[in-house]
Amino acid sequence: MLQILRHISDYGLLGELLLLGDFLVRMSLAIWVLAQKRRSPESRIGWILLLLGLPFIGTVIFLLVGETRLGRRRIDRHRRIREALDRPDIHADGDTEARAHDELDRSSSHLARLAEQISGGAPVRGNTIELFGDTAEVIRRMEIDIDGAKRHCHLLFYIWLDDKAGTCIGEALIRAVGRGVTCRVLVDAVGSKLFLRSHLCERMREAGVQVKVALPANPIRAIFARLDLRNHRKIAVIDHELAWTGSQNLAEADFALKPRFAPWVDCVVRLVGPVAKELHLLFVEGWFLDAGESLVDELLEPVPTRENGVIAQVVASGPNFRNHAATQLIQSCIHEADEELVLTTPYFVPDGATIVNLATAARRGIKVTVVVPRRNDSRLVALASRSNYAPLLEAGVRMLEFEGGLLHAKTITVDRRVALVTSCNLDRRSFDLNFEAGVLIFDCDFASNLRFLQQSYCDRSVVVDPRKWGARPSRTRLLENAAGLLSPLL
């Protein structure tokens, strides 16, 4: 970099003017970062260091990914669809039979009200929920559900591969279209780029499956919107009253894109009841944003409650939701714990407040366990993740590293009474940039089942020894802490 600057200065007055102009631009952007209301202190520091430390390059990086720009057309569409969805009869709790706030205990009610404030969906009763931790079984059961569809199949996925799993679901949709079922598929432009070019996608479209691209990524769009804002949700809705969501993409566990980290270990829930309507609402919103077609009328039909069903609540987040929505939910889960808190995530690069809350929970006697993969598909994220271990270990948090593949399940259990299954990682990207979706389940039996699944992850993990961790080589700590400085930008 110094050689480049010297080379520019060799051009005399022109070079000096260029350097001065770059300096003024970087200083202006740094001031702009300081003036923004919604940016976290860590993010401000990270971007200012980048801008001041990298002449020319820092400016380019900031202009590309420094701000959460959705683009004017998308913002306008989002405003229009939110106005259309802001009706009591659209949401599942519009049916008085499904309302559940009064059935929750005080602690759970506080958590539910926060979740409703940040994403709009209320807790609803009368749902049957099944938990899955096996990729092949998820695909098998989802195929059966699609084969039984009578009206529509609506699928939204970040990654769809044309491997055995993706082909299985694609073929099921082709069969469904042949029976007269309306099938709509929304996939992320970056996560599913190989699928969109595949023969499978071509066959699906030719058969009548409507395949649309979420958040298209191209150089022209980069002028108006940030390209790394991705739709990270995994949702399938069938006939309005059955839905799937969780961490699993439409891909085999061996995950052909990164096979050396396989198997991918996921957690998914199958939901039948009013809560499925709330997941359908997220699909309808996404479909309007990227396909321009309104499906609001399909949400008007109420979904009947199931006898002895459980209370559940959809939680959504994204750059078009309230700022730090996902962070607030995670921190509230931490605050609600009285005895035990267990979190699993593939990417552990949370903000400083979440780290402090986890440490505080451990210090007040809560048994806090965090499970992450021992081998991560992102070297930089792995280093940044480990830079957070020390304060947690000192506070008494149990840090476990999973050795059975890449643990991709994003789950939380609170005292075996509240559970969260989501697509949201514990990192800044999921907190602030990606569109995410998950389900809060207020049921002791389900939470216990999820805790049992989490324990299976713990049993295949190694416990990080605080003493050995403190004795790591200085070079290792240096690399981890350097990566940690970049965590606000990851």
Describe the structure.
- With 490 residues, the chain is an alpha/beta fold.
- The protein folds into 3 domains: 2-65; 72-108 and 123-309, Endonuclease, Chain A, CATH 3.30.870; 325-489, Endonuclease, Chain A, CATH 3.30.870.
- It has 20 helices and 19 strands.
- It has helices at residues 2-9, 13-35, 41-53, 57-65, 72-85, 106-119, 135-147, 164-178, 193-196, 199-207, 221-224, 274-291, 325-336, 352-363, 379-386, 389-395, 428-433, 444-459, 466-470, 474-485, and strands at 124-132, 152-157, 182-188, 210-214, 234-238, 242-246, 264-265, 268-272, 310-317, 340-344, 348-349, 367-373, 398-402, 406-407, 410-414, 418-422, 426-427, 436-442, 461-463.
- It has a 15-stranded mixed β-sheet, with helices on both faces. Strands 7-14 form a two-stranded parallel ribbon.
- The longest helix is centred in the N-terminal third of the chain and has 23 residues, at 13-35.
- It is globular.
- The model has no long low-confidence stretch (mean pLDDT 86).
Provide the helix percentage: 40-55%
Radius of gyration based on Cα positions? 23 Å
CATH domain fold name of the largest domain: Endonuclease, Chain A
Low-confidence parts: none
Q: Which structural class fits the helix and strand makeup?
A: alpha/beta
| Shape category | globular
Record the strand order, biggest sheet. 4-3-2-5-6-8-1-9-18-16-15-10-12-13-19
Tell me the number of strands.
19
Which CATH top level class of the largest domain fits? Alpha Beta
The named CATH superfamily of the largest domain:
Endonuclease Chain A
Number of helices: 20
Q: Which CATH architecture of the largest domain would you pick?
A: 2-Layer Sandwich
Number of domains: 3
